[in-house]
């Protein structure tokens, strides 16, 4: 079953471009509902992820975990991502079952989250986080692979569809900031559970893409030269370094802002503001890609990240924190859009999920290692954790300078 329906003319304002396909799926009415479905995938995942990223550390703090323990638990999904994501995405690519993989992984992850809400023992939490991460971390690269295949085959516009994920993230963080003024962080994780259930439904309803065919992908994805291309590997490494620098933000931003006297509601607003800045990049993604290119977007975002993390410890008042959060447009929005666009140009459709999985692996390795290190550093001196992130971004920008194929 797929998202189909009748398109009213005024709905062409929806995030899509005119089709390049002559297949039945390329009919304008079908394109609208496919774009709606892909946007729904991003929205459901990011709504779930917002509560996990922004408020799970507060849940851990509430059940008396130390900063080192919090940093380790937050780093675990990224450590697991190193091994699980390339394996799970390559299995999905080879089987030609991206949509069904997303649905299955979402159901397993939501059940794991549900149990996690009631856990308080350190080792039980670690075991649950490891298990759920095996299924949770591959969802995003599978989404991006599916979305970019609709771009290539149907002429849809990735940036505006992805922006709905950012909008959902904003809504979630605002809900979380409001709820924390009277409720408990653990309650917010129930919304993660519900969102993953919605994601599973949307994934099943979307139509299959050409690459979702066993006859096309039955050979080993690892035998492909395109996945061993030095240019591809450099982009993966640099993207991993630049986005892996977010480990201290995800582990300690909410805790840090509250510790310097910023209110609960403002903490939610800061998360939302950063994502609003990111939305602008996605909505106008075609413009930025046309003028800066994928490589230029990554470099610009990397420089923004270096500045952001160097100044983060000094943003102890709401106005200064707001200014730095606006740099999220570059440090996440530009880098992420640059990476996924670059990979889509270097890798064929049938291996896009594997390529995105390898990027997630690099990002997870950096985030896992730096996340653990940031926990130790944060306990010694809060600022040191963010200085480490700035150094990682410098390494990412330097790696980009080694890329000769600058698309």
TrEMBL record:
InterPro entries: HcaT-like (IPR026032), MFS_assoc_dom (IPR024989), MFS_dom (IPR020846), MFS_trans_sf (IPR036259). It is found in: Cell inner membrane. Residues 1-212 form the Major facilitator superfamily (MFS) profile domain. The chain crosses the membrane at residues 31-56, 68-88, 100-117, 123-142, 163-182, 188-211, 232-258, 270-289, 294-312, 318-343, 355-378, 384-403. SUPFAM superfamilies: MFS general substrate transporter (SSF103473). One of its GO terms (molecular function) is lactose:proton symporter activity. Keywords: Cell inner membrane, Cell membrane, Membrane, Transmembrane, Transmembrane helix, Transport. It comes from the Bacteria. GO terms for cellular component: plasma membrane. It is a multi-pass membrane protein. This is Putative 3-phenylpropionic acid transporter. The lineage of its organism: Bacteria, Pseudomonadati, Pseudomonadota, Alphaproteobacteria, Hyphomicrobiales.
């Amino acid at each position: 079953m797929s998202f189909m329906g009748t398109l009213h003319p005024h709905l062409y304002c929806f995030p899509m471009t005119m089709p390049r396909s002559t297949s039945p799926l390329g009919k304008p009415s079908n394109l609208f509902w496919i774009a709606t479905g892909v946007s729904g995938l991003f929205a459901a995942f990011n709504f779930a992820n917002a509560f996990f990223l922004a408020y799970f550390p507060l849940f851990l703090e509430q059940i008396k975990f130390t900063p080192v323990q919090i940093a380790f638990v937050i780093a675990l999904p990224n450590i697991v991502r190193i091994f699980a994501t390339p394996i799970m995405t390559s299995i999905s690519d080879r089987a030609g079952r991206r949509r069904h993989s997303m649905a299955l992984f979402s159901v397993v992850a939501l059940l794991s989250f549900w149990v996690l809400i009631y856990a308080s023992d350190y080792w039980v939490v670690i075991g649950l986080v490891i298990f759920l991460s095996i299924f949770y971390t591959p969802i995003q690269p599978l989404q991006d692979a599916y979305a970019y295949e609709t771009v290539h085959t149907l002429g849809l516009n990735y940036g505006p569809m992805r922006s709905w994920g950012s909008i959902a993230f904003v809504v979630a963080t605002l809900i979380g900031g409001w709820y924390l003024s009277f409720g408990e962080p653990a309650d917010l994780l129930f919304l993660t559970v519900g969102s993953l259930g919605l994601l599973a439904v949307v994934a099943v309803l979307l139509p299959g893409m050409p690459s979702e065919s066993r006859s096309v992908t039955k050979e080993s994805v690892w035998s492909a030269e395109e996945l061993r291309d030095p240019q591809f590997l450099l982009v993966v490494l640099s993207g991993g370094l630049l986005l892996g620098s977010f480990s201290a933000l995800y582990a300690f931003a909410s805790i840090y802002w509250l510790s310097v006297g910023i209110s609960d509601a403002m903490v939610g607003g800061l998360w939302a503001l950063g994502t609003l800045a990111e939305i602008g990049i996605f909505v106008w993604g075609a413009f930025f890609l046309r003028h800066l290119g994928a490589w230029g977007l990554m470099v610009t975002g990397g420089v923004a990240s270096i500045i952001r993390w160097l100044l983060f410890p000094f943003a102890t008042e709401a106005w200064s924190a707001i200014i730095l959060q606006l740099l999220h447009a570059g440090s996440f929005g530009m880098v992420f859009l640059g990476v996924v666009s670059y990979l889509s140009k270097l890798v064929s459709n049938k291996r896009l999920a594997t390529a995105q999985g390898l990027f997630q692996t690099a990002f997870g390795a950096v985030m896992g290692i730096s996340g653990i290190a940031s926990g130790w550093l944060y306990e010694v001196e809060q600022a040191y954790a963010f200085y480490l992130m700035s150094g990682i971004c410098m390494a990412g920008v330097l790696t980009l300078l080694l890329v000769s194929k600058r698309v």
